[in-house]
UniProtKB/TrEMBL annotation:
This protein's name: Octaprenyl diphosphate synthase
Catalytic activities: 5 isopentenyl diphosphate + (2E,6E)-farnesyl diphosphate = all-trans-octaprenyl diphosphate + 5 diphosphate
Cofactor(s) required for function per UniProt: Mg(2+)
GO-annotated biological processes: isoprenoid biosynthetic process
E.C. number(s) listed in UniProt: 2.5.1.90
InterPro entries: Isoprenoid_synthase_dom_sf, Polyprenyl_synt, Polyprenyl_synt_CS
Family affiliation: Belongs to the FPP/GGPP synthase family.
Keywords tagged on the record: Magnesium, Metal-binding, Transferase
NCBIfam families: PRK10888.1 (NF008140)
Statement: the UniProt record of this protein carries the keyword Metal-binding: yes
Role noted for this protein: Supplies octaprenyl diphosphate, the precursor for the side chain of the isoprenoid quinones ubiquinone and menaquinone.
C-alpha cells in the first residue's frame, strides 16, 4: 500500500508487517510454477490486509512477546486469499482491487486449485504453530466461512431474504475470519477468558461493520479507489441490506423495482435503483447499522489496558465505517 495511504493502525506494527510479508513470500514457494505464479499475483494485488493486521495488533495489545504471531498472520492472509480466489470463480468476477482477477487471466480451474493450495498450505503452517486450540479455532472458522458462502449462493435472486437471514450470512462469510484473527491472537497471548471473549467480540463486530460498509459502497463508493465495479452485487442478484431495507420500507414502485432487480440481476436500471435506495433511507439505515457495529467493537476494547496498539484498534474500527474504498 502506498505510504500516503498508511494509517496509524498500520504504522504501529509496520516492523511486524514486514516480517509477515517475508513469511508469505517464503510460504508461497512451490515447485509447480503456476501455483507460485497465481499465488504471488493475488497476494501482491494489494488490499488492506486487515485480517493479518488484526492478528498483529491484538498480539501486541495483549503483550505477546514471542514470534508466533507472524506465521499466524500469514495463515490468516492465506485463508482469506483462498476465499477470494474461489469467490471470484463463483461470482464470475473479472475485476478485484483494480486488477484482473486470477480466473480472468488463467481460467477457473487453475484459480480453484491454487485456492486449494493456499488452504492446504495454511493448514500446514497451523500445524507448525503446535497449538491445538489455534487449530480448532481456524478449522472451525474455515468451515463456517464455507457455509456462509453457500448460504449467500442460495440467496442469489431471492427477494424474500430477511434482514436477519442476511446478517447471519455476513456473520459467517465475512465477520468470522475477522473474529478468528483476534481470537487466535488472544489465545496465543494466553489472556484470561474475559479478555479473550472481548477480543472475539471486537473482531466479530468489526467484520460486520466492514461488510455493511461494503454493501453501502456498492451504491455510493469510488469505483476507481475500490478497484471494483459499482453495482457488482446488484448485477449478481445479491440481496444486500440496502435492497432488503428498500423492499421492506420503500413505496410500491421502489419495492417492485428492487424485487425485479434481485430476481433478474443485471444493471439495466441501476440509476433508478440507486435513486430508490437513497430516497427511501436504505443507505442511511445501512450506514447506521455499520456505525452501531463499530461502536460495539470499540466498547469491547475496554477489556484491554491502555496502549498505542489499543488506540490503533479503535482507529481501525472508526476507519471501517468512514472509508470510501
Amino acid at each position: 500500500m502506498p505510504e500516503r495511504n498508511k494509517h496509524s493502525f498500520q504504522t504501529v506494527v509496520s516492523e511486524d508487517f514486514a516480517l509477515v510479508n517475508q513469511c508469505i513470500a517464503e510460504q508461497l514457494h512451490s515447485d509447480v510454477v503456476m501455483v507460485s505464479k497465481i499465488g504471488q499475483y493475488i497476494i501482491q494485488s494489494g488490499g488492506k490486509r486487515l485480517r493479518p493486521l488484526l492478528v498483529l495488533l491484538t498480539a501486541r495489545a495483549t503483550g505477546f512477546q514471542g514470534h508466533g504471531h507472524i506465521p499466524l498472520a500469514a495463515v490468516i492472509e492465506f485463508l482469506h486469499t483462498a476465499t477470494l480466489l474461489h469467490d471470484d470463480v463463483v461470482d464470475q468476477s473479472d475485476l478485484r482491487r483494480g486488477r484482473d482477477t486470477a480466473n480472468a487471466l488463467w481460467g477457473n480451474a487453475p484459480s480453484v486449485l491454487v485456492g486449494d493450495f493456499l488452504y492446504s498450505r495454511a493448514f500446514q503452517m497451523m500445524v507448525g504453530l503446535n497449538n491445538i486450540k489455534l487449530l480448532k479455532i481456524l478449522s472451525d472458522a474455515t468451515n463456517i466461512i464455507a457455509e456462509g458462502e453457500v448460504m449467500q449462493l442460495m440467496n442469489i435472486n431471492d427477494a424474500s431474504v430477511t434482514e436477519e437471514q442476511y446478517m447471519e450470512v455476513i456473520r459467517c462469510k465475512t465477520a468470522m475470519l475477522f473474529e478468528a484473527s483476534t481470537h487466535t491472537a488472544a489465545v496465543m497471548s494466553n489472556v484470561d477468558r474475559k479478555v479473550e471473549q472481548a477480543l472475539r467480540d471486537y473482531g466479530n463486530h468489526l467484520g460486520m461493520a466492514f461488510q455493511l460498509v461494503d454493501d453501502l459502497l456498492d451504491y455510493e463508493g469510488d469505483s476507481e479507489a475500490m478497484g471494483k465495479n459499482l453495482g457488482d452485487d446488484l448485477a449478481e442478484g445479491k440481496p444486500t441490506l440496502p435492497l432488503i431495507f428498500t423492499l421492506s420500507e420503500g413505496n410500491p414502485e421502489q419495492k417492485a423495482l428492487v424485487k425485479e432487480a434481485i430476481e433478474e440481476g443485471g444493471l439495466e436500471k441501476i440509476d433508478q435503483i440507486v435513486e430508490a435506495v437513497r430516497t427511501c433511507g436504505a443507505l442511511n439505515y445501512t450506514s447506521q447499522k455499520a456505525r452501531e457495529e463499530s461502536e460495539k467493537a470499540i466498547a469491547s476494547l475496554q477489556a484491554l489496558p491502555d496502549s498505542s496498539y489499543r488506540d490503533a484498534m479503535e482507529d481501525l474500527a472508526r476507519f471501517a465505517v468512514a472509508r470510501t474504498f
